[in-house]
Amino acid sequence: MPARLKLLREPCTNSTEKASGKIRREDFLWQKGLALWKKDDLRVLAIRQRRIDPNKSHVAHKSDKAYDISFDDPEAFANLLITLCTIEGYLLDQFLKGVENRFVQGGGFRENLFRKRLEYRKKVT
Predict the structure, then answer these.
(1) Which domain holds residue 70?
(2) How many domains does the chain have?
(3) Which residue, among 26, 43, 33, has the nearest Cα to 82 in the 3D structure?
(4) What angle (nearest 5°) sits at the alpha carbon of residue 66, between those of residues 60 and 71?
(5) pTM (2 d.p.)
(6) pLDDT 10s digits, 92-102
């Protein structure tokens, strides 16, 4: 399980490093003199409210219209990417917390396997 937790942390770490400054997504906006949308901006809230229907195809011929943001607008597109990366980081953090809680409460694979082996030996003897 520790190896699995380490693997699960890797994407989270990379996203966090990107967001925290090693690779700053906001630099593109700053260099171009474009605005970084605040998290309470109506456009960001609209992106955050959007949900993917698992019963529909995720491939679209007009994918630039998925969030009502044109790929030709650099400010809107960069802010879309920043918002989606922020959501990704949040979801990965939540997932990792769940995996860690399950590990702490239920134990790891080896621990559970050993417990089952002891139960079996008690039944046999």
Answers:
(1) 2-48+58-124
(2) 1
(3) 26
(4) 95
(5) 0.65
(6) 999 999 988 98
